[in-house]
UniProtKB/TrEMBL annotation, chains A, B:
<dbReference type="GO" id="GO:0033212">
    <property type="term" value="P:iron import into cell"/>
</dbReference>
<comment type="similarity">
    <text>Belongs to the DyP-type peroxidase family.</text>
</comment>
<dbReference type="GO" id="GO:0020037">
    <property type="term" value="F:heme binding"/>
</dbReference>
<protein>
    <recommendedName>
        <fullName>Deferrochelatase</fullName>
        <ecNumber>1.11.1.-</ecNumber>
    </recommendedName>
</protein>
<dbReference type="Pfam" id="PF20628">
    <property type="entry name" value="Dyp_perox_C"/>
</dbReference>
<keyword id="KW-0479">Metal-binding</keyword>
<dbReference type="Pfam" id="PF04261">
    <property type="entry name" value="Dyp_perox_N"/>
</dbReference>
<dbReference type="InterPro" id="IPR006314">
    <property type="entry name" value="Dyp_peroxidase"/>
</dbReference>
<keyword id="KW-0349">Heme</keyword>
<feature type="domain" description="Dyp-type peroxidase C-terminal">
    <location>
        <begin position="226"/>
        <end position="400"/>
    </location>
</feature>
<dbReference type="GO" id="GO:0004601">
    <property type="term" value="F:peroxidase activity"/>
</dbReference>
<keyword id="KW-0408">Iron</keyword>
<dbReference type="InterPro" id="IPR011008">
    <property type="entry name" value="Dimeric_a/b-barrel"/>
</dbReference>
<keyword id="KW-0575">Peroxidase</keyword>
<feature type="domain" description="Dyp-type peroxidase N-terminal">
    <location>
        <begin position="61"/>
        <end position="214"/>
    </location>
</feature>
<dbReference type="InterPro" id="IPR006311">
    <property type="entry name" value="TAT_signal"/>
</dbReference>
<keyword id="KW-0560">Oxidoreductase</keyword>
Length: 416, 416
């Protein structure tokens, strides 16, 4: 929860003053946070005070247990350099940039006061925008561990995902050596962050694929209403909330007994691009739709119950109902922290909406988490209406502890 | 400004009550509008009262002079049916759905109270969300006038766009018989609207291409700060504001002298998908960037001036500066109402961000508006960093006047 203060560096806000604060796009913090009403530019906001900036430093990375922001830009990178020192330096540079951007500052302090002959340190499109609860979360893919002599440091829990029934994976939308998840309440802030990291990484890494997302499809805020997915159903009712310390410890954070040591306080993330056959779904009867999910569409209540959060009675549902098959009781108690976003990427070549769910889930154990549950969903009635078209898994290292720490230090540093 | 009231039909809000109001995603109205603070579900909000719903009825269509919303979903459709009566019925059905959706209601009144055996009237993903200032604006492309015996009703002003220097147009992202522009402060509301219109049109029309956009890149609100484009520059400082009745009449609305009669109160819209060569731009020096635009990057002031809104002195700029070439003084006084959005559609096959500006502009006269200005931009220094990859033009008919009126009536109705 450490906040670095550096009054000598320009913040995005102080550069233009607060004249434009009334206009700042989409910068109102949601999910129970309080909107900023400041009129001066000399005080750094804190998360507790305003909800507008999320602390970058901590034992765990932000962006996992953090209340879900409205927008996502997720990018997977391939590593191009073979020079370990160069790659480590890039991770340090990324960390410094992430620390500043999540605080609402420009990437470098010479952005507009520096040399006119040089490219600006910051691309500038987030100037004047608030921090917008930006979080940046890094992950390391299985393929990274084949590089830089890291083979013996690959966690046992970072297994390659098996092929699941119905998978139709596009290699150009799958895997990657690295990932960065950028979440913010303003899409321009999330896009700006990924773009500037890509720019800093130029020549060392390149973007393999990326995904924009909107409209929280799950919520880590326990009492808030569950958002609807693009099928019109509430999804993620019983998700793990960021305040549930016990469930986070049990299902999300890598513990000391799990190992390896460099991953303690970290997690694993599974990303799946799930295309929805929207047009088919929209021609399906209400009864069939409700049977498929095991909930009613309006309220979101489990079959036979009145309210969304009523305890589901699984046996009242059809055997292939989504809720029944995904429930912890059907998966030896397993559950995962879901943090997915809806996406709409225009139209496919056949006049159909290219839309669906970009599923993101964090877990302590990939085999006992996503793999177990996804295998159990092989008979899910929902499978008729969806298809998994992209897939990736990453080891998410622990948080950056202070201003001298950096993303990946525990993996790369000899002293770790 | 007529608001229909229909207390017998469920609104999106009354279906779930207001318990979720605190969570409604991104539904806070921006651009000077006032956020809703209602706690009851029995009163329909009005635009004047809350800013959360924009009136659907009026002499002009909403979504043109309306203060720009945060998000865009724009879709171009091909007409598949050859049956004029069937097409006209679809336009009537679309109008009824648009009237309801812009008021925050479900598409039909049987959405969840109707038959379980039938598909729901509404796809449901906007249930519980506020109207979010949704506007829906329809346009008719040149190719539509080759159908349904409409050839002699095509406006002279609806010219085909010529090929401009540097164009690299993708046919699959260009043209269309129809377009619908959906703008809202919540992307899920905009996406929901396009999807439901596509669903109603199934078998009669199909989506040819569509585009998501975010982050207003121009503002029709005169005193608000101008948003930045993805090059980090303020763009659209001297845009026509929705309150400037004289400039709207002169440059945007088709007048009685212009004809044809069915277009009076309408306008023309030009859509251009402009890809930015982000990576090249980001490696360009600050001085070069500022020279290209003719503004400084931080404040947005014209060359030699202190403030964004200071009167530009064009001769102080380089001859190929964007502001200098686009200025009305360089175009025989011509100007257009810009309403574009930034886009980021992931990554191209070469690891570069697929990002840029989805340019939308409304004008009374296409030849004297967009075509004149775009020709003058042939020598624009900006052309080194951008490429036009999609293009379309549409005639935008006048507004729907009341609950008996419908989109396209003045074009299709014999009595018109």
């Amino acid at each position: 929860m450490t906040e670095t203060k550096d009054d000598t560096n320009p913040s995005r806000r102080s550069l233009i003053g607060w004249g434009g604060a009334g206009l700042a796009l989409g910068a109102v913090a949601a999910g129970g946070a309080v909107a900023m009403t400041r009129t001066g530019d000399d005080v750094e906001p804190t998360a507790a005070e305003t909800g507008a900036a999320v602390a970058f430093h901590g034992a765990n990375q932000a962006g996992i247990a953090t209340p879900v922001q409205d927008r996502l830009h997720f990018a997977a990178f391939d590593v191009d350099t073979t020079d370990r020192a160069e790659f480590v330096q890039m991770l340090k540079d990324w960390t410094a940039a992430a620390r500043r951007m999540t605080a609402g500052k420009t990437v470098g302090d010479g952005a507009y006061g520096g040399l006119a002959e040089a490219p600006p340190d910051d691309t500038g499109e987030a100037l004047g925008l608030k921090p917008s609860r930006l979080t940046l979360t890094i992950g390391f893919g299985p393929s990274l561990f084949a590089k830089f002599g890291l083979a013996d440091r690959r966690p046992d829990a970072l297994v390659d995902l098996p092929k699941f029934a119905g998978d139709a994976l596009d290699a150009s939308r799958s895997n990657g050596d690295l990932c960065v998840q950028a979440c913010a309440d303003d899409p321009q802030v999330a896009v700006h962050a990924i773009r500037n990291l890509a720019r800093i990484g130029m020549g060392k890494v390149s973007i393999r694929w990326s995904q924009l997302g909107f409209g929280k499809t799950s919520s880590t805020t326990p009492d808030a209403q569950t958002p609807r997915n693009l099928m019109g159903f509430k999804d993620g009712t019983r998700n793990i909330a960021g305040t549930e310390t016990d469930r986070l410890k049990k299902f999300v954070w890598v513990g000391e007994k799990d190992g390896p040591e460099w991953m303690v306080g970290g997690s694993y993330v599974v990303a799946r691009r799930i295309r929805m056959h929207i047009e088919t779904w929209d021609r399906t009867s209400l009864q069939e739709q409700e049977d498929v999910f095991g909930r009613d569409k309006g309220e979101g209540a489990p079959v036979g119950k009145a309210k969304e959060r009523d305890e589901p009675f699984l046996k009242a549902m059809k055997p292939d109902a989504h809720v029944r098959l995904a429930h912890p009781d059907a998966n030896h108690g397993s559950t995962i922290l879901r943090r997915g976003y809806s996406f709409t990427d225009g139209t496919d070549g056949l006049g159909r909406l290219e839309a669906g769910l970009f599923f993101l889930a964090y877990m302590r154990d990939v085999s006992n988490g996503f793999i177990r549950i996804q295998r159990n969903l092989a008979t899910d009635a929902l499978n008729e209406y969806i298809q998994h078209v992209g897939s990736a898994v990453f080891a998410v290292p622990p948080g950056v502890r202070d201003k001298d720490d950096w993303w990946g230090r525990t993996l790369f540093s000899e002293e770790a």
